[in-house]
């Protein structure tokens, strides 16, 4: 009956495992299909397509005619690098390397087949980058770098000081966006030419503005890096005239932490940490910082000790030494019958005792507080 029950449970387990595995596989396939069917904006989709074409160029860069006499074929058919055969090889594998938006990429490959052939045979020498030819010039899905909008307008600060080099131009490289500046953290303004609140000018010249964060002691603007440069102090700090902001030590206040916790001061703040389990109220971490000892603990040499600690240590030591003694007695009994076996066992016993004592001395097997108070 028990065997039958085990077989039934095993069968159920196998069926459930197979079912769950099939569900995971279906989810995986569904996830792959969703990635392949994902659609990008026109410029991003065109960039995915041309990147796939460029990978095809790299893969076929060392290719040659496969007829056997490549020198004769090069002479009669022209260079392989510009040949129709190479173009066909690239097109056959186009978009196969694309994980996200593969369907859209394949659709573009069909739609732009004539433009690709036109670039391949007529415009490679003039425009070596297929992205510029297809995405910017022919389809008008994208703009040149640092241009935006339907008419590919120049971004603010073009060409070498876009958004004061402290931000990004909205819509740059696409036919979208308004060309406004999206400033990096610490910068504000139409062209990111000012420091945001909480930041100060650490460097500035005709072309460069560098804004750095104010000290944590500051609430709002500041004149420099330190707490003395704050115009106003943040919570947890107080202003001293001509000296700046100084940290408030909240731990000096009475009863700032709840019961059986102690206070640790931090810059502009504080934290409450739990006392040692030996304590009933404390001023810091450890059994030597207790105000009072917890139940079942008593104070000795300024430490709160477990009242049962010494008794337990005596029992542990006694049991250990009795074990060693028993091993020695057993070795002596064997010695009377066979000297060689007794010698081997005696050596093993000695090694066992030595290793055991070493491990005890260098681990937490013995409570460290017992060592502080000396041998028991």
UniProtKB/TrEMBL annotation:
Pfam family for this entry, one: DUF3456
Keyword Protein transport: no
Domain EGF-like per the UniProt entry, residue ranges: 151-193
GO molecular function, one term: calcium ion binding
Signal sequence bounds: 1-25
Superkingdom classification of source: Eukaryota
Disulfide bond residue pairs: 183-192
A single BP term in Gene Ontology: animal organ development
Residues spanning the membrane: 318-335, 340-361
Family as reported in the entry's similarity comment: Belongs to the canopy family.
Protein name: Cysteine-rich with EGF-like domain protein 2
The organism of origin for this protein: Trachymyrmex cornetzi
